[in-house]
């Protein structure tokens, strides 16, 4: 099988986003108690063609096989809990391509380059220690996710990932949507599949709909969310993390 680098042109994802626009998630429209928590939507980061090429390259690494996604249970361990998470997954580590993705969007989110005195994002420990955390990169681990009819990810909050040397940790999630609600020509439209934020009481919701080339960024802490059940069609996304190091 050809390597993943050979399935994509050398200039893949080079250059600026094709039509980038930013909109901050408006918590007042759904979950007012989340006001002040950070979540941003960037549209036009990739074209539909680039999304298709990225999915094809990921699939080429596994011969088109999608493993069943597992759930992190702490200590670097995972377990299969399909009552919590039920979808297909391909894992692909590539610093080059996530670096190119970040280059397209970094100028749109300058407020998260450095984190200081922000307990809602970092927790109280770094604030008490007067630490400043500086953004370093996107996690090279791209987790491609495929949700088909009846599949879902139940409500949860994302956890911080720390590198084995403990020099970097994540504070934000990045979701790249790789398919549209309408579906491609000849395919069934997507019904369901939103990324849904929930109030802690589970009485109020706010949906972010899949759109090819859209990036959703949000802080790990305090944002309860789920992958809504896909009733029809297929939802494709890629998830990774924004990494930080302690500033000297």
UniProtKB/TrEMBL annotation:
A GO term from the CC aspect: endoplasmic reticulum
UniProt-listed InterPro entries: P4HA-like (IPR045054), Pro_4_hyd_alph (IPR006620), Pro_4_hyd_alph_FE2OG_OXY (IPR044862)
Residue span, Prolyl 4-hydroxylase alpha subunit domain: 37-243
Keywords: Dioxygenase, Iron, Metal-binding, Oxidoreductase
Pfam family, one: 2OG-FeII_Oxy_3
Keyword Transmembrane: no
Keyword Iron: yes
A GO MF term: iron ion binding
Cofactor: L-ascorbate
Signal peptide segment: none
UniProt cross-references to Gene3D superfamilies, sorted A to Z: q2cbj1_9rhob like domain (2.60.120.620)
SMART domains (alphabetical): P4Hc
Name under which the protein is recorded: Oxidoreductase domain-containing protein
